Amino acid sequence: MPNHGDSSTDVPHDDLPPLEQVDSPTGSPPAASPAGVIELHNCVSNLSLAHEIVMNRDFSFTPSSPPKESLEGRVTEIVHRAFWDSLSEQLNSQPPNYEHAIVLLQELKSLLDSLLLPRHVRLRSQLDEVLDMDLIRLQVQHGALDLDRLAAYIINTMAALCAPVRDPEISALKELKEPVELLRGIFRVLGLMKADMLSFTVQSLRPHLLQQAVTYERTKFQQILDKQPAALDRTWSWLEAAASDEASSSSPPLSATAILNRAYMRLLSWDPLDQKYPETLVMDRARLEVLSSRLQLLTMEASVLLLTCGTAAAFPQGFVVRLRQTVAALLEGRHSREDDLKEALLSLGEVVVQQVHQAAIDQGGVPPSSESQDVLSGQISTLWKKDNPVRSLVGERLQGFLRALLEGSSTQKAPELPASLGLVSQDLLDLGSTFRRMVHFNRTVFGPFYAPMLRKLLFPAEAVADDSR
């Protein structure tokens, strides 16, 4: 825990998150019963799903299946193939055996019924009439079941209920003649329609969910803490490290806001292999890692552009835009691992030098000398080093922009970047806006959990006094 000396008493208490405080549990979790473990798992799953719906504006449900190469995928494929092969044998036997077909028709009726809305009174009545299972069994007994007619009715009902995006699949079903393939296709498309309906329902309810999300997530997380008291240990370490960094790089007094902002910024440079990720941000880890990767790429792009544009008084705007496209294409997916980045920068240096040489000729100017080209290529090739002065400078400028964006209110104008970094400004602003929204929501939800920890960091004397009582 950082010690700020006497200056800590000057910190305004009202800088702490203005939310009710929740004690920060410590120690080892108690032994949990199997039922408790299942309950905890369900709680975490529900919390993760609710958070994903709120944070992901494009959230949608998609039917999932295990990877084909996995053991589960192979077993699933074998079981499904055996079932459909068995159905094919039953339907092709003389007389046809409809035992499995009746089960499938019952499932199809249930699926269709689940897609009907309260206003679909006529469709529901028609569904009960056409797929009357007692009548279907009676027809089977008398050899009068018309499976093709029932399949056609099901497809027409699906066509009336599906979203326009599913029209091609419905049309493809109408072309199928073989009963087993037709039933199999109907189940597949109904699965897609079910996912479409769930996604539409979520989007319709999203404004309401956003209003309730903070209370819901906070309550669910408290339930997790009740079952697993040590579930804030990594969050404490995260805030403690941020407080230490802030104390060593800024003048006192410290503030809770400064510590939190420092802590959030640390997430953009988190080592992906470090498992000590704060518990309060685990649900956003994948999103934050994507933002971190984008920031790394922008840093490399801006560094190359800064070096290149410094080799001549001016380049046409069109050339600079094309140059950035080239840089992005050659570095994309190769900027995270050091060995890949080294190799990519070697190739990139050669390509950039060629483009600069050609641009000078196209403008009727004098191309850079061989010595200048070698210098530029060498400068680009050494950007893989984390302590490279150009890379460090650009990184600090971009980080400073993001932190200033984080510290400002949503109504404030974004801080301006130096002209030399203007080419990446819009991408950086988009990244920063996403980051700020994520941080704002996280702080709103978990403010009550951060507050007591921040108070201990800012007022250690008070914390010691409280513990001694």
Keywords:
single chain, 469 residues, mainly alpha, extended, disordered N terminus
Structural class, please? mainly alpha
Series of H and E elements: HHHHHHHHHHHHHHHHH
Distance between the termini: 20 Å
What percent strand? under 5%
Number of helices: 17
Q: Report the uncertain regions.
A: 1-41
Helix content: 55-70%
Short recap of the structure:
It contains 17 helices and no strands. It has 469 residues and is an all-alpha fold. The two termini are 20 Å apart.
Topology:
Blueprint: H1 34-55, H2 71-92, H3 99-115, H4 121-130, H5 133-141, H6 147-161, H7 167-175, H8 179-227, H9 233-249, H10 256-266, H11 285-309, H12 317-331, H13 338-362, H14 370-381, H15 389-407, H16 425-458, H17 460-468
Helix pairs in contact: 1-8, 3-6, 3-8, 6-7, 6-8, 7-8, 8-16, 9-10, 9-16, 10-15, 11-12, 11-15, 11-16, 12-13, 13-14, 15-16, 16-17
Provide a descriptive summary of the structure in words.
With 469 residues, this protein is mostly helical. The chain has helices spanning 34-55, 71-92, 99-115, 121-130, 133-141, 147-161, 167-175, 179-227, 233-249, 256-266, 285-309, 317-331, 338-362, 370-381, 389-407, 425-458, 460-468. The model is unreliable at 1-41 (pLDDT under 50).
